[in-house]
Amino acid sequence: MDAEFCRFNTYGYYMNQTDLRDVLERYQQGTCTTEEKRLVENWYQAVGEERELRLTPEEQETVRLNLWNRIAEQTINTKEADPEDQSWVAAPVARWAAAAVVALGLGLGAWQFWPAAKPQTVATTATASAQWVVYPNTSQQVVNITLPDSSRVQLSPGSQLKYPRTFGAKQRPVYLVGKAFFKVQRDTTRPFQVYTAQMLTTVLGTSFTVQAYQGQKKAVVEVKTGRVRVSPRVVANAPISKALPAAIVVLPNQQAVYSPERQQLQRELVAQPVQLKSQSFVFDDRPVPEVLTALETAYGVHIVFDNKALANCTVTLALRNKSLYGKLDVLCKTLGATYEEVNAQILFHGPGCQGS
Fold first, then answer.
1. Parallel, antiparallel or unpaired: strands 254-259 and 219-225
2. Domain total in the chain
3. Does residue 236 sit in the same domain as residue 326?
4. Fewest CB atoms within 10 A around its CB: which of 94, 119, 211, 234?
5. 100 in helix, strand or coil?
6. Same domain (yes/no): 124, 254
7. What is this structure's pTM?
8. Whether pLDDT at 332 is above 70
9. What pLDDT does residue 217 have?
10. Last residue of a domain, one of 270, 291, 310
11. How confident is the model at residue 82 (pLDDT cuts 50, 70, 90)?
12. SS3 for 16?
């Protein structure tokens, strides 16, 4: 196939979906190469009975996401089985490419990729011993799952998690559609990786939430403790007009928000930052820079302010039982100041005070 048919990066393999559509069109028109025709027809034989499925747009999205997860799994598993063996570049990739072309373009075999109605064990084609557990949460409550490394997951309703029965020696990959909170056991030798259709989140040991529902325009990773690394992934039907954004590191009370359509990855503060360190928040005629520094330390949020201009400003305030933003609102009202959030930081703008 075309040398540009595959795209590789540090984390594995991603398909060029424009090329996939081109292969399908050429196959239907009878203009594809002999190799492309062989791949597609081999998939026909593997699928067996021809099935034409009439799927809603939401159902088509479900099938598509499961297909791309299967493609990613195939590459990761085969490569991990023997990192020095480069044969995974050609044979497995081409086979799954043909599967994606036929299933997405003609509706054949799409039933194989539909989420199961209950937890089940699925054998992969990478190695005979590799097994995966698929857990779709079809209930109305959050489901608690314990992973093979004792990491814990709270899977939200309408979400699906897929993970290996036993993690490999080099990494701990899981696949998510929907929303889940992860509390990961620390293991510096085996990074924990959460794959969604839009993003790859990599950690060593921490707690965080990933939200990436089907059809959702933005995917979000919100960190509670520790730190995570978030990398964008190639997304089906998204315009590839420029290079993907660089990965970012996200800290507690921050979140990464990725828009595939805009190819924009941003670091923001979460909607309600939680207090990370103990602090009384009762200030009796204290300098404003001291108050801002106390807020910064307690919430782990960097607050940028003009220390010199505010040095002579003092306040007497009791800020208990208020959120971070509530505390800032009270302080601003007292001083006639304002604040704004920029790149997960608080920019505090105060008029300053005259010295005594």
1. antiparallel
2. 3
3. no
4. 119
5. helix
6. yes
7. 0.63
8. yes
9. 85
10. 270
11. very low
12. coil
